[in-house]
Every structure is written in structure tokens, then in C-alpha cells.
Amino acid sequence: IFTANSGNKEITWMMLEAGAETDVVNSVGRTAAQMAAFVGQHDCVTVINNFFPRERLDYYTKPQGLDKEPKLPVKLAGPLHKIITTTNMHPVKIVLLVKENPLLAEVEALQKCYRVLDLICEKCMKQKDMNEVLAMKMHYISCIFQKCITFLKEREDKLDGFIKSLLKGRDKDGFPVYQEKLIRESIRKFPYCEATLLQQLVRSIAPVEI
Known about the structure:
Blueprint: H1 2-6, H2 9-17, H3 32-38, H4 42-49, H5 54-58, H6 74-84, H7 91-99, H8 107-126, H9 132-154, H10 158-167, H11 177-188, H12 196-205
Helix pairs in contact: 2-4, 3-4, 7-9, 7-10, 8-9, 9-10, 9-11
């Protein structure tokens, strides 16, 4: 809490990696993220809300229950974790992170990754301390991965074509319509209609016409 309130992103991240719990509350029932938000340290709030321990992802690299194979190959855990913990959520940035790693930029790899993201999203919503922000982020990245698969399968220019589509602006004012539609579509597909975050997003976005 003191680190987050100080506004030091690097030390906040270091403490999270060392095992600091994000859901522990102080004497007035506030978490570190809530206290940081209260004093205006929004960069630290972003770091805390985007943190996802590597061991939670590594869980999927081992066969569970009756599974003979793990849901996520070990070689994909590192690249996927890098994308999960990024604080830059621009779709082009996420596609570039996929493109820069040959292990990820394949249809089969992305299929396995997006299924794991969907499982994590479900877990975030169904655990005792629900984390709607992390659930929405996992769902959003999953949607971008699924769109990457479409371009890898159907387009000769593959992920370059996806990036161009995201960046292309309409003639009259340069507004990136495809990018806007993709983000809206990912929000619309979020499977937990009761989520407060989803309802807030819909209220904000629905009245705004493209």
C-alpha cells in the first residue's frame, strides 16, 4: 500500500513479483490499488490491475485431472505471460507482440493460448474475490488472438494485413473504423452479462455512434 501510494511503478511491480497480495485490505477495508487510486497514483493502479503471477499461468503447462496433455505448451508460457502483463492494450501493440515471437505467430499456438485465456477469464469471474478487470483483459486478448488466427488462415499478408486493417482510417477523417468495431465486438462478446464493468462500458459506448 505504501509503495503504491508513493507512485513508484518499478518497486510496485517488484513487490508484486516477490509475492505481495493484491487483495489484502488495510484497517479501513481498502486494497493497495484502491488506496493508490484515492491519492491519484493511477500508474501504480494500472500496474497492480495488470499483474498476473507467472505461476498462475504455469498451472496450465501441466496436465490437470484426466488430461494427458497440458492445455498450454511450456514454450508458449513466457511469450503469453509477456502479453498478459502488458499495460499497453492497444490492439496493434498486442498483434505486434504476437508477430515478434515465431512460437506464438502460428494458428495452433494461438488456438491453445486463447483457450487458456478463456479459462483464466472464467476463473477470474467465478473465484471468491472476483476480478472483473483481469477477466475483461483476458477476454479482450483472447478476441484479438482469434482475429489473428482468421488473418493467418485467410490472408496472404497474414498479421501484417491485420495491422494495416487496424490502422487504416476512413477517407473523410482518418478514423480507424475497423479497430473501433473490433474493440466493440470484443466487449459485446464478454460472456458475463452481470459484470459491473461490462455494464459501465456498455453505458459509455452504446450512445456513441461510429
